[in-house]
Design goal:
Length: about 350
């Protein structure tokens, strides 16, 4: 490595260290300011603590749970995509007097991301006391900004977290309210633990349907899939088996994938195989997603004259599928124990 390269590496390391040190100092500064405000401030109420990462072990090694910041506190899970301290770092702003969503929304960051990680915003309704996405007509006594700590792309890093902190400061300046900021070291450690947990407990299962003789026309495949309960997906070469909970839009449970190029071509195009795919952490166990995928494989295998095989083209027997189902029951139990039940809003965000 030449002298110039060495110098650039040293300068880069110094800049990153300076950013981390600055954000750590700012976090402590604003927590001290907030402590003096909170001494006479309102009390948060009616909070139900979600499950944490306690008692988790990976490869036999226990993981130390990361306690929730006492300033943020545990919070109930009310809506899809809501802020959750189990997977989010949270900055909060006390609003006195309360302010309308119409006033708050234009002051939010235009890009609701910190690097590759999504940011969310919620307000505590001044009338009901409940947390909700900002609505223009409602007034809010408190605002929270959050960034997701981990997803399938990995945990948040120091640069992304610094970008989040910078946006929180900008929002605080726009509101004229000092933010109560999360601690960087604690957030990065929680992100690392979440990533370790997610890596050890993620599962994507597939069953392949392969034509025994002649390939299927795309129209023929679609018709047979619709007869088995599938509907067209949002992308070419994809159909979905849906489920619907009370007060929620229909949500994909099992995916059926085939050649997207053939799907975009004329109706004479043909395919020789299709794949059933189950994203285990994203589908509620109560919906019996693997059982429904097995049934769909049987129905489509019969309707299409297809062999039911695994990724290596080996036949999938009932005994093999039974074994997988038992393993899934164990995975569901682990996810339940740690507040990340399959199909929950938090699990769908973490395993995405």
């Amino acid at each position: 490595m030449g002298q110039l390269q060495t110098a650039l590496v040293v300068i880069g390391a110094i800049i990153i260290a300076a950013v981390i040190a600055y954000n750590t100092w700012q976090s402590g500064k604003f927590r001290r300011q907030r402590a003096s405000i909170d001494a006479d401030g309102p009390v948060r109420g009616e909070l139900v603590e979600p499950g944490g990462l306690d008692a988790l072990s990976v490869d036999g090694e226990p993981l130390e749970p990361m306690p929730l910041s006492p300033e943020v506190g545990p919070r109930p899970r009310l809506l899809p995509l809501q802020i959750d301290p189990l997977i989010d770092a949270i900055s909060s702003y006390l609003l006195d007097p309360a302010r309308s969503g119409e006033v708050l929304q234009p002051r939010l960051p235009k890009a609701a991301r910190a690097g590759a990680k999504r940011m969310l915003f919620e307000g505590r309704n001044a009338e009901t006391g409940k947390w909700e996405p900002l609505q223009p007509q409602n007034h809010y006594a408190e605002l929270q900004a959050a960034v997701q700590l981990s997803n399938r792309a990995g945990p948040i890093n120091a640069i992304e977290f610094s970008e989040f902190i910078a946006k929180c400061h900008e929002l605080g300046d726009a509101l004229g309210v000092p933010p109560d900021l999360p601690d960087m070291a604690e957030a990065l450690e929680q992100a690392r633990q979440l990533d370790t947990f997610a890596s050890a407990n993620d599962a994507q299962l597939s069953i392949t349907l392969r034509a025994r003789s002649v390939p299927w026309g795309v129209d023929f495949l679609r018709q047979r899939a619709q007869a088995a309960g599938f509907v067209p997906g949002a992308e070419a070469g994809r159909m979905v088996l849906l489920y619907q909970d009370v007060d929620q839009a229909p949500t994909p449970l099992v995916h059926l994938q085939f050649d997207a190029r053939a799907d975009l071509a004329d109706s004479a195009a043909a395919v020789s195989h299709a794949t059933l795919l189950l994203e285990v952490p994203q589908a509620p166990s109560a919906q019996k997603p693997f059982s429904r995928m097995r049934q769909a494989a049987r129905d489509l295998g019969s309707a299409l004259d297809a062999a039911v095989v695994d990724d290596n083209n080996a036949p999938l027997t009932d005994a093999a599928l039974d074994h997988i189902e038992k393993q899934l029951d164990m995975l569901y139990e682990v996810l339940d124990q740690h507040g990340l039940s399959a199909g929950s809003a938090a699990a769908q965000r973490l395993f995405s």
